[in-house]
Every structure is written in structure tokens, then in C-alpha cells.
Amino acid sequence: MARLPRGGGRRKTELKRIKNERERAVTFTKRHNGLFKKANELATLCGVQIGVILFSLSGKPLSFGSPNVLFVINKFLNSNQVNQQADDFVKRFIDSYHESKVKMLNQELDELNEKLANEKKRGQRLQQHFRASTGWDTYEEYIKSLGIHGLMKLKYKLEELKRNVERNSDAISGSSSSNDEYEADLSKIGAPKDFLKM
What is the third-level CATH fold of 21-77? Predict the structure, then answer.
């Protein structure tokens, strides 16, 4: 097999500043074109936005950008604003959620307050009715004022009310029951004799 002659292949370049000004200019021209080509490949293959800015030895600006250099520069300089806008969006979303939740809770509170006010009015009406029918402010005062005779009357009326309710419920359900089992034996509890005449 024949060997390739030495010296025609690529040589490793030592990385240090080129002293000859003409060689430096030629290397810059070749290398900056290669750099722009690699940047373009990176933008195309990876779909990234990229910007490269160089100044030649004479001070002339050279640039490559995808989609363009100004877009990439503005995005780079305003990256904090982009993050801030995202944070502001999240904050607005959370505030909106909290606002709707607070609105819903306030509506529930208003409904509960309205129910409470209605129940207070109902309680006042019941108390006025109780006062009008008994002459007393509270049920406890009324019970204390009855004495044994009044309590016996009240007990008898409550048992009679219970029997009536049970009779009506039996009539509605269609079953019949004996009235004897609901009769109260007032003699066993020491009721006054004149009470039985009521």
C-alpha cells in the first residue's frame, strides 16, 4: 500500500495571537465566515434564536442573527421583563381566582345572614305569640307559675294532643288502634279530683 505524503493534511494550529497582520486579516475572514456558517447550522438544526456580533481588525461591525440580530439583542436585554410578565400573569390569575372565591364566600355569608335575620324575626314572633297566649316571657317562667294543678292540666292536654296526632296518623296510614291504650290513669299520679271533671 502506498503512503500519503506528509504535510498535505490539516495541521493543528497553536492558539496564540498571529503576529503577521496580513495573515491575521486572512484568518479572520476565513474563520468569521465559518463561525457564521456554524451559527446558522445551529439555528436551523436546533430551532434556536442566535446572534453573533464581531468587529473586524479595522473596526467594521459584522453580525449574524436568526431570526435577526436586533431581535436576539432585544430579547436578551429584556429577558427579565419576559420573566416579569410571566410572573405578572400568574399573579393576575391567582388574584382572579381568589377574588372569585371571596365573592362566592361573601355571597354565602350574605345568604346565611339573611337566614339568621329571618330566624330571629321568627323567634321574636313566636315569643310574642307565647307572651300573648300565656302572659309570660319565657317557657321556664310559665312552667314555674303553673303549680301542680296547672302542670297536671298541661300534661293532660299534651297527652290528648299526642292521642289526636296518633289517631290522625293512623287514619292516614289506614291502620286502626284501640283508644284504651292511650287513656291516662290520673288517679295514679295524684291528680286533684276536680281536675278529672275538665
Answer: SRF-like (3.40.1810)
Distance from C-alpha of 35 to C-alpha of 51, rounded to nearest angstrom: 11
| H or E, element range at 142 | helix 139-173
The model's pLDDT over 130-144, given as tens digits with 9 standing for 90+, comes to 888 878 777 788 778
Do 87 and 64 touch, CB atoms closer than 8 A? Answer: no
Q: Quote the pLDDT of residue 141.
A: 82
- H/E element, 54: strand 50-55
- How would you write 95-143 as a 3-class SS string? HHHHHHHHHHHHHHHHHHHHHHHHHHHHHHHHHHHHHHHHCCCCHHHHH
Please count the other Cβ atoms lying within 10 Å of the Cβ belonging to residue 142. Answer: 17
113-163 confidence digits (pLDDT tens): 999 999 999 988 988 888 888 787 777 887 788 888 888 888 888 899 999
d(CA 3, CA 113): 101
Cis omega (within 30 of 0) on the bond before 67? yes
pTM over 0.90: no
Q: Is omega for the bond preceding 192 within 30 degrees of 0, making it cis? A: no
Distant-in-sequence, close-in-space partners of 163: CB < 8 Å, separation ≥ 6: 179, 182
List of residues 6+ apart from 184 with CB closer than 8 A: 155, 156, 159
24: three-class secondary structure by DSSP: helix
Largest CA distance in the chain: 146
**Residue 129: all three cell numbers together:** 305569640
